[in-house]
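Deliverable D5.2: sample structural annotation.
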Amino acid sequence: VPPAVEMDTADDEEASSSWEALRSTLLPPDGMSLPTTAKGTFPPAFALLVNGRALNAWVKQPSPSCAAAVVAGAWNALVCADGRRDARAMSTRDVLDAMSVGAERALERKKKSFARLLGVTSESFDAFERAVLERIARDPSGATLGGRSKADPAMRRAAVMRLVEETATSGGGDAKNASRDFFPDEARRATRQDAVSADGRTNETDVDVDVDASFSRPSAFAAVAALLREEEEARAAANVNENAPPSVAATSLPKNARNVIVVDAAEEKGVGAVSKPKKHKRFPRRLGPPSAAFGGSSLASAGDAGEGDDGVQNKKKEARAETLNAETDAVDAADDDDAAEDDEDSVAVDSEDSAFATTKKKTTDGWAWRADLWDVFKRRGGLEKLSRAKPSTAAFGNAEVMRLFQRLIAESSDSDDDARTKSSSFSARVAFGVKTKTRTKLSYAVSKHVKENDDLKTEARELANSWASLRSLFAEQGTFLVSHHGNHYAPVYALRERREIVFDENTKSEKETETREMLTARRGQRPSVWIPWSEAISTMRRWNGYGIMAFERREA
């Protein structure tokens, strides 16, 4: 079993990439000759494929930063003629810096989106976020959003949302329109001038009142507090016991429940299955959800107008309240740690493999504001992980890894003076893994389940077919493969296969066996471990996020 370390040793890359270092790894048992049988004869077949560019390009990871290391390796292999020795070569540190810039931009976009849906200004939401962060810093648990290490992990979602509620209720007040914010003075002055010129009024006091009414919004504190009040009102209207176990509420959810149903993390924690909702309703960019923060109807009463039967109204109120219980009690208690640390699904180039993943949710016509708000703080936690003394890329999944590579290519295209690079096209995709709705460019789709009645021949056929596809792609010029397995990213440096004649004790006769393996790493980036292809396939079946990514350069 390899040691439980998440970084490479101090030895430089060349120490593991020379022929002297590699030959015993590539050619067992002694590295001096082709493998032979116990009788001293050659096996029926032996094949070895080595990606020299990958061996010339990989770089060490100085911390739990495998996602950054493989992007640097892909860049060095496909862009740099001399690999990591090239003047344009990137180190893991270079990629970590680029990751931080991209993560900061993504966080700002998410915050602006949430503020728009909440109906408040970005400045107001910034103030709310700062207040929550201050409470996290003072929390007796000592936990942080990003965690300090695996031994000192990040604050759980339930704890963060508890502090969100405390912040909102302490700063938002109880009145529906309490604590209102205003647009920047420049916008108000411009609007006041427009109003004066439009109707000729000279009483600027009257104009100011109109402008303030048009341009004021509830503060983020008040808006979040209003959402919390809606939840309480929905519970009270349906006389739902707040202390009931989450499983009781979640397992009885009706098909027409109007509010958000958050499923993945909740189901994994025993909340139970939920019904499949109708199409997700998107709110207009300017209006946001029909929240009490906007002076709109509450979730408890929305949609009841025109219902002729009191019994129907009560049932629908109860359904909405039960759904609120399932979301607030069960989901906030669910485990939402980052995929790379806790085998959870993180988004992807395909929607299920991406970094800074949001807990997946199914909605009807409500707004999953808790999930969206948690996504903001989770992204903030991802930035904190990148800022550690030993940076961690645990918050980055397949999508972020591939998009970052594409961004680096795009940003370098204008300044790159290599005509050959400019004439090439670069891409990144998941090439091997379980098929999903968004994975449209798989080289081979791995079957999700092995059925009980599948015989050994069926499984052997899939292993053979998938291996043939892998071997073909691996041999293509301008291809750099990255394996995502066991919460780790590492390049695929070589493939080997052999057929052997062995004695079967059960049948008391000789039979032919086939061995297929890929050279990669379970920890760090050094080419050190041959992983059986059968094990790799089993790993991909265990979680959709696992697979093999292909970074490709094709000549125009």
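Annotation notes: The radius of gyration is 28 Å. The first helix runs from residue 19 to 26.
The annotation will be released with the project's public dataset once the embargo ends.
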